[in-house]
Structures are given as C-alpha cells and as structure tokens.
Amino acid sequence: MTKHLNPMRIGIYVLLILFALLFLVPVYVLLASSLKTFAEVQDMSKLWVPPAGLHLESFRAAWSGIPEKGLRGLSRNLLNSVYLTVPATILSSLLGSLNGYVLAKWKFRGASVVFPLMLFGMFIPYQSVLIPLTQTLAAIGLGGTLWGLILVHVVYGIPITTLIFRNYYAEVPTDLIEAARIDGAGILSVYWRVLFPLSLPGFVVVIIWQFTNIWNEFLFAVSILQKPELQPITVALRNLAGSQIKEWNMVMAGTLIAAIPTLLVYIVLGRYFIRGLLAGSVKG
Amino acid sequence: MSHARRERWIAFIMVLPSILLLALFVYGFIGWTAAVSLSKWDGVEPNYSWAGLENFRLLFSKVGGVSARRFSIDLWNTLFFTLFFLLLCIIVGLFLAILLDQKIRGEGVFRTIYLFPMSLSFVVTGVVWRWIFAPGAGTRLRGVNALLHAIGLNALRWKWYTDTSSFGPFHVALTPVIIAASWQLIGYTMAMYLAGLRSIPEELREAARVDGASEVKIYRHIILPMLQPITLSALIVLGHISLKIFDLVYTMTGKGPGFVTDVPGIFMFETTFQGNHYAQGATISIIMLLMVAVVIIPYLIYSFRREVEL
What we know:
The complex is a heterodimer. By secondary structure, chain A is mostly helical. Chain A has helices at residues 7-34, 38-42, 57-64, 75-105, 111-120, 127-139, 146-170, 174-182, 187-195, 200-216, 219-224, 233-242, 248-268, 270-279, and strands at 65-66, 71-72. The two termini of chain B are 33 Å apart.
C-alpha cells in the first residue's frame, strides 16, 4: 500500500525537516565559523553570516597552534587521545568478553549477587571515587600519566563491557557449548573455540561504545592529567575555549577535529552504535 | 576435586581480577571518600582526624556561609535541570519516534541527524552552545541575540546563561544549558522509542483498525501503554546522567554569576582540585552518590528480579 501525499503527511514531513534543521544549527555554526578568517571572526555579531570563502587557516592554527600568540595546537592532544583510547578500549573489551562469557554460561555460586554489584559501578558519579583515585595513582607512580588514565578507563569500563557481552553470549545456544563439552573441551577451550569466533559483532558493539566514551571523557582526564602536553583533546579543547581567546575560528576548527573521530565511527558504523546505546540500559 | 567443581573454580578465577579491581576502585574508594567526608582534611596534606558530620552540617546550614548558599543553589539547579531535561527528552524523543514510524521516506537520514549529537563529547557540545548562546551586549550583540536583533525580534533578547534573574528557586540561566543537553540526548530517547514501536506487532494495530479505532486512539490506548517500560529505562539512564552532570556545564557556562548555572559536580571539582578543600569535596560527592543511588539501586533490583522470573 503506497501512502499518498495528503495534508497530514505533508505536515509530518515539514515537522521532521524543521527538527532536522534545528538539530543541524550547531553544525552550521561549527562549519561556518571554522571556515572563516581571523578577520572575519573579530566581529562576533556576524556568527550567522556565511564565510566569505573557504579558508582553512583556522584548521592549521588549531592543529599546530599560533606560537606568536602563545596558543597551543591540538595535534599533540589528538595523539594523546589515540594513545589513551586504543589500549583502554582493547583491554576493557577483552576483560568484558571473558566476564560476560563466565556470567552468561558458567554461573558460579554468588554470581547473581556479584553481577549487580559490578553493574552499580557504571552508574556511580565518578566524583565519589576521584579523591582516592588520584591519591592511589600518585602512590603507585601512575599519577599524572597516560598509563594511569588508561588503567582508570579499563577498570571503570568493566561493568558496561561485561553487561553487553553477557547479554550477547546469553543468546548463543547452550547446545553449541554442550556439543563442545562432549568433545572434551574445558571452560577455556569452549571460550576459545566456540564463543570467541562468534564474538565479532559483540566486539564491534563494545569497541565502538568504549571508543566513543573514552574519547569523549573529560572528568577523569582533567583530574588526573595536569601537564598540557599529556592531556587528551577534550581537556585541551576546553582549556582553549575557556581562555580569553579571540580566534574563534580556531576554537571551532579544534572542536571539529575533536569531534570527527567519534562522528566518523557513528556515521560509518551507526547500526552498531545504536545497538550499544540500547544495550547500555540494563536488560530486564 | 571433581571435574565440574574444578571448572567452576576456573570460571570464578577468570572473573576474579575484575571483581577485585571493582571491589577496590568502586566500593573501596567510595568507602575511602566517605572517610574523607568525615575528616578535617582541608589543604594539600591529607588529614584524617575525625570531624563527624560537621562537613555535611556546613553544607546544609546557615553556619556554612557561602558554601551552604552555593550548595543549596546547586541542589535546586540540579532539580530543575533534571526535571526539564527529562521532560524535553521524553516528549520530543517520543514525538520524533512516532513521526518516524509513519513509513517515512528518508527515515535513515532523519534518524542519523537526530542521533548524531549522541556520538559527541559533552565538551564539544558545551563549546558550540556556549558560542551560540553567548549574549554579547549593547552594540556588540553575539550569538542568538545577534540573530534576534537582525530579524527585528529585539523584545526576545535576554542574557541567556549569564542572566541572574529567577522564578522562585529556578534560575532562568539554566535554560540554554537544558537546551544543549537535550539537543545531545533527545536522539537517545528517540532511538529507544523507535525500537519499541518497531517491536509492536503490526497485527495488533490492524486488529484495532478493523475494530474501528482511530489512529490517535490506537496510540493512546494500545501503543503508548506498551512503551512504558522504555520510558522507565530512559528516565533512569537520563536521570542519573543529569544528577551527576559536570563536563557540559563546566565547558558551556561554568558556575555562572552568582552560581546561576552551578551544579554539585562543578562545586566538587573546584573545591577539591582548585581549593584543596578535600573534605568538602568528598562530602559533596557522597551526597551526589546518594542522589544517584536512590534512583539506580531500586532500578537494578527491579531489573534483576524480573530477569530471575523470566
């Protein structure tokens, strides 16, 4: 049955397009401002005026800084974000996979108590662990280091990665596991031979989720890393935007640079992104 | 030891590192923070001498001076922020999901546009919206005010997140922050509701149509009631985000003039890491934890009870 364009349906489309335009306002501001020259952004009342041409000097400034004005570029911080996000994502995904497997298929005594207690860890306001955390990292020699922050993201990533993998492995038919058991496979070889090869979609969801969250995170990073040259891009960006800076095209270009990695992941792998999103609420 | 028992031990040992890490980093550290909140630690050097509930008293009573005034504003701000943010996300998210469920051409494009802000950092959101709602002044208007001036709607100009006026305990300066947060998370409720709508079998609607029910009635009496569990999940997830919100507000407005946009997360961060008032910071974070726990613990218990029954 094809729907004809009656007034009701036209109204629906108008509303959808209106909302879409509203949602894109910040994108316009970002793109328009970052394509302007320094001269163009001096007059702040012209925020909505399109750029006079396609100038990329703001991106160059955001990338390598403007030394004569004492403005640092973000290239170093972007790299820090990569060094932080990649290992933390991989480690927390692997831990989540192991935990999820055990909790889905090998319920040991007390598992029904342990699992909710683990999950509580993903809801807490991280402010409530921040003071002991910074003290402890300093005591074990990881204070103010990227490795310290990686450890933090691995640990606090365990609840969500475990949850997603547990729900994912729960869907794997127990028959498959029984068959491998009859062939004499133990708990570890069942994981390695049966579950792990089936895990790719689960890993995609978890890796996207962790990548996005760790890349975007701010509170841990700003509390643990004081040295500007070690900070990930979220912290550096906020410091740049929070200063009395007049080069707003540079800030907007920097914002785009910070946003592009997760945005790309979302656009290319949106399906899996949404799956992680829906898995983020406890499945009842 | 029997084979099965040995395997149960291996299973337990596989999760043991995670259990130990979380036991320390979540429960151990929360206990530690609680100890700091009951101490006299005020300065760079740790000081665990006993203060009892004095730090809590200072936040909640007049003797606390500026701190108490600030914290009371923070709690009101959190309440109003949470209330309006949840309302906007639920209503607009549900509305968009219902619109998108009408066999829309180009649905994927619309969905992508409504949902993309979810993939961004709160810092990115904060920087952009800080710029959009920057008020400017006099002949040097900025952001939305410049736009309103250009189209002749000068009457609608106001000072946005720098405005210090309020209706009772509600500071109007929170409005732009609520808009920014909703912009980022409406897509989440939309995706949840859309998934819910798609899981309702078409036969159910057909049957109602055959019985002569109008589309509006079908939504009101059949579909919306079926979406209730989704609303509950969304309220919990978004509610706990808004109770502990920090990055967005810290980037977009900071505490604001007279704390008009301050929240406990900002107070905690500033007093702890910029003021070295560790005991006070710990106290605020314990109160934040209690606020979140009141919402989350019943939800976790409820979820797991249902799962066990299934």
